[in-house]
Design goal:
With 244 residues, the protein is an alpha+beta fold. The protein has one domain: Gcn5-related N-acetyltransferase (GNAT) (Aminopeptidase). The protein has 7 helices and 9 strands; from the N terminus they run E-H-H-E-E-H-E-H-E-H-H-E-H-E-E-E. Strand 7 and strand 8 form a beta hairpin. The relative contact order is 0.16. This is Long-chain-fatty-acid--CoA ligase. Keywords: Ligase. InterPro entries: Acyl_CoA_acyltransferase.
Length: 244
C-alpha cells in the first residue's frame, strides 16, 4: 500500500470521495459542518487530503484543515468542537491569518477494507503531514463511535468506561490512544442538527415522539417537540492531541 495526497494525485479525487461517509445521513444537515464537507476540503486543501491505495484502488482517506491555534483570542480548544473549528478556518481564510495547527476532520475506511488497521495508517500519515507542513500541533475532535450503543449516557460517564488495561472502552478513542494521543477536553456541542419531524423521518426513518429519541447512527438522542414540529440533535466529541 502507498499513501498519496490530492495535491500530487488530483486524479484520485472522485474515487476517494466515493469511499463513503461516517455516521448517519442526518449529519449532512449540520449547517456549520457544511464548511468541512469532504469535497470542499479536497478542493481547498488537497495537500491535507490523504488517500491510501491498495494497488491502484483507494481504500481509505483522511482530511484535515489548518487553523491558527492557540492565539490570544483562541487560548483553548472550543466546546463547539468541529463546528467552531470550521468557523476558525473560515475566519483565518478571510482574515489572511497564517495557520499553526492541523485539525483532522475525518478518517474514512472503505467498508470492504475495515478491520485491517488502516485507520491507524491514516492517522500516522496525518501526523507526518503535519510535521512536513511545518505546523506545530495535530488536534482532532473525535467522534466516540461506541456511544451509539449508549445514546442516553452522558459523555462524561461514557469516557469513564475503561478497559482493564486502562485504555478507553470506546474503540475509536482507543485507536488514537494507542498512537499516543491524549485527551485535551470534551466538546459537548460539537455538531448540531435541527429539523422538522418530517425531515427527521426522512433522514433516519424514525417517527419522533416528545422527549428524547435514539436514532440510527446517532451518538446522542434527538430532543423532539411534536407541538413545535422540531427535533434537535446535539452531538459531543472529544478533543485529542497527537504527539508529533
Amino acid at each position: 500500500m502507498r499513501m498519496e495526497d490530492l495535491a500530487t494525485r488530483p486524479d484520485l479525487r472522485q474515487a476517494a470521495l466515493d469511499i463513503g461517509v461516517v455516521g448517519g445521513e442526518f449529519l449532512c444537515h449540520d449547517v456549520v459542518g457544511l464548511l468541512t464537507k469532504s469535497r470542499r476540503l479536497a478542493a481547498y486543501w488537497p495537500e491535507f487530503f490523504l488517500v491510501l491505495l491498495d494497488g491502484d484502488v483507494p481504500v481509505a482517506r483522511a482530511a484535515a484543515m489548518p487553523v491558527a491555534f492557540p492565539t490570544a483570542e483562541r487560548p483553548e480548544l472550543p466546546e463547539h468542537g468541529l463546528e467552531a473549528a470550521a468557523l476558525w478556518m473560515a475566519e483565518d481564510v478571510m482574515d489572511g491569518r497564517a495557520p499553526t495547527t492541523l485539525v483532522a476532520i475525518e478518517v474514512t475506511v472503505a467498508e470492504h477494507a475495515r478491520g485491517r488497521g488502516l485507520a491507524t495508517v491514516m492517522l500516522t500519515g496525518l501526523k507526518a503531514r503535519t510535521r512536513t507542513a511545518g505546523l506545530s500541533r495535530l488536534v482532532i475532535p473525535v467522534r466516540p463511535t461506541g456511544l451509539e450503543q449508549h445514546p442516553a449516557e452522558s459523555i462524561v460517564d461514557y469516557l469513564a468506561r475503561k478497559r482493564p488495561d486502562g485504555l478507553f472502552a470506546d474503540p475509536w478513542l482507543r485507536t488514537h490512544e494507542r498512537l499516543g494521543a491524549r485527551m485535551i477536553g470534551v466538546a459537548p456541542f460539537a455538531m448540531q442538527v435541527t429539523g422538522t419531524l418530517a425531515q427527521w423521518r426522512e433522514w433516519t426513518g424514525v417517527e419522533l415522539v416528545d422527549g428524547l429519541n435514539p436514532i440510527p447512527g446517532g451518538i446522542a438522542p434527538v430532543l423532539a417537540s411534536v407541538a413545535r414540529d422540531l427535533g434537535v440533535y446535539v452531538e459531543p466529541n472529544v478533543w485529542l492531541e497527537h504527539p508529533l
